[in-house]
Amino acid sequence: MLILAIDTSADDTSVAILRDRCVIASVTSSQITSHAGWGGIMPIVAKLAHEKKIDPVLKRALNLFQKARHPDLNRCYTQTDIDAIAVTQGPGLSIALEVGILKAKELAITMNKPLIAVNHMEGHLYSPFVQNSVGLPQRDIPSRFLSLLISGGHTQIIQVDGNGKYTILGETVDDAAGEALDKAARMLGFGYPGGAVIERLAHEVSNLDTFHFPRPMIGQQTLDMSFSGLKTHLMYFLKGEKGVVVDQVGQLREIASSFQEAVFDTVIRKLDKAVIQTGITTLAVGGGVIANKRLRYLTRKLMKKHHDIPLFPPLKYLCGDNAAMIGVAAWRQAERGEFVTDIQNLSREPRKSL
Ligand code: KG4
Ligand code: ZN
């Protein structure tokens, strides 16, 4: 099945065309530099940038697609080969989502194709299973697995049973892990996106956990997590109210690293509990934060203990937001027969959970 997918949920304008879960064309235009100075994504800036970029990104993706060889016919692909249009419906920034939804509706109607409305988090969930045009990496989608979704808006441990049955085993009760890293970076005087900045600062610190910040809810049996108290702790810490005066630039690195350790240690310990509680050792991880090499290392170490290896999305482009993962989630949805019945009236929906 050939699906053209669109994601405009946050600060990336992305269009991909896939054959089942193989990417034939993928184009993403990032707005990172437009938001960097604001310490977070500015919704109106994002909307205007999506409106400016959506047509050129779509055009480039279609050009790449039409240059690729059709595997069964002695010719290149054409636009009429596309079987369905898919779009992120939510969760995300509403005025940003609307740009993609409008374009997807327009395409579905003018091309007379079915429309698939995708939950952005289901996209991240399937991101470790996106393949390139020749079907690599060669990994099947397991019938049963655990998924860790760790992004700027979500931190969830999910049990997946077959196509479309998702049970949330645990999630953050307040800030998401990525959000906590973004806020910490801002407190340390750095811009958006904070997770990558914290990772760079933490790199080459000899003692990774100098300040050993609190790990909220860690002793509790629940798989839920909390990161907002940690953020408040950092705020008081930086004011010197925890008895430490931050007076050297070098200390910034140690603070960043200690904060990162507190966030990741919490997630890893909850994941460990999830594996033990369910007995499931197949783990797939998705979301922007898994771009972090320290988190990848800690996740690998945890799963080694459980005699398995975690499945990550390729570092290159599939950790952050992208339409390729939306295409795979859409393909799974199409297999379940879930298409939009009233295309004209499809609106952005706050699809918070899976
Ligand atoms: O999945 P994503 O691109 O967007 C959402 O759906 O939220 O995730 C964005 C989050 C941000 O919080 C960003 O700081 C974080 O992913 N992030 C990282 C890294 N790169 C991006 N966090 C830690 N280390 C990184 N290298
Ligand atoms: Zn995302």
From the structure above, extract its key features.
Nucleotidyltransferase, domain 5; four-stranded mixed beta sheet; 9 strands; 17% strand; globular; binds 5'-O-[(R)-(carboxyoxy)(hydroxy)phosphoryl]adenosine
Folded structure, characterized:
There is one protein chain. The chain is of the alpha/beta class and 354 residues long. The chain folds into two domains: 2-139 and 317-345, ATPase, nucleotide binding domain (Nucleotidyltransferase, domain 5, 2-Layer Sandwich); 144-313, ATPase, nucleotide binding domain (Nucleotidyltransferase, domain 5). 40% of the residues lie in helices and 17% in strands. It has ten helices and nine strands. The chain has helices at residues 32-35, 43-67, 94-111, 120-126, 177-187, 194-202, 228-238, 249-278, 293-305, 323-335; strands at 2-7, 12-19, 22-30, 84-90, 115-119, 144-150, 155-161, 166-171, 283-286. The strands form two sheets. A five-stranded mixed beta sheet has the order 3-2-1-4-5, sandwiched between helices. A four-stranded mixed beta sheet has the order 8-7-6-9. The longest helix is centred in the last third of the chain and has 30 residues, at 249-278. The mean pLDDT is 93. 5'-O-[(R)-(carboxyoxy)(hydroxy)phosphoryl]adenosine is lined by residues 10, 151-153, 178-179, 181-182, 193-196, 199, 287-289, 291-292, 320-321. Zinc ion binds next to helix 4.
Q: Distance between the terminal alpha carbons, to the nearest Å? A: 24 Å
Q: What molecules are bound to this protein?
A: 5'-O-[(R)-(carboxyoxy)(hydroxy)phosphoryl]adenosine, zinc ion
- Order of the strands making up the biggest sheet: 3-2-1-4-5
SS content category: alpha/beta
Domain tally: 2
Rounded average pLDDT? 93
Q: Helicity range of the residues? A: 25-40%
